[in-house]
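User: Some background: our group keeps a shared notebook of sequences we're curious about, and every so often someone picks one and asks for a predicted structure to add to the entry. Today it's my turn. The entry only has the sequence so far, pasted here. Could you supply the structure so I can complete it?
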Amino acid sequence: MPEQCSIQRVAPAAHSLPNPARLVLILAAEKMVAIHGLSGVSLRQINEAAGHKNSGATHYHFGSREGLIQAVLDYRISAIAARRDAIFERLKQQSARLDIRGVICALAHPLVEELKPRPEGNYFLRFSERIRRERNEFQVDYTFPAASWRFAQQELLGHLAYLPPCLAALRVQMVLDHIISGLAGVEARLVYGSWTPETFIAVETLIDFITAGVTAPVAPEVTASLAAQQATLAVKTLSTRQKKTNGKHKCKSS
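Assistant: Of course. Here's the predicted structure to add to the notebook entry:
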């Protein structure tokens, strides 16, 4: 039986709502990007989805498409950050090290709250996945609370100290990637925007799946590839040192 996550969820933090004209554009952009992707939707389409006849409404309120996308993140992430920070602040008070599933629960559950039905529909997790997939194309600040993420990294890396550092770091980064992509899939499968027992099972199974992946055995092919890379690096390092040594000898002889 998987260990049960004992983390209590906290209510979203209160935050000031954008004015109605901005909010309708934010919600339209969230939905359109979630469905079509950043590169698959234009400002004109977002304006039309928001019911704005003025084609310059987005530029007027946000300055650019990047400004609008950042506004969507600002609108949603403040509450997510407050939930996650409250969870990690409580965890920091515990003397015992949190197990891997507990860390993943703490990262995932503030995002799971985004699956609760909304009148405008649930799109933020798919929006987030699109942003992470296309983030190099647009200059958008998509970062989670640094202190909480650092704490989670330290906890996970502590459990993975037996792995080569590069592999441990890669697995930790994949945790967040898989949480967001997995929850985006759950969001897309919500039946008429309703939370069902199947949704709960899907979320907890995703957490189980990621937990198992973090500590999965390293494939022999990966071990061999790492050894080959280290051997190549050692040869290059030795060659560089020899060149420097030969250069010094030439200088002395001249």
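Suggested note for the entry: Residues 220-253 form the longest helix (34 residues). The chain has one domain: 20-244.
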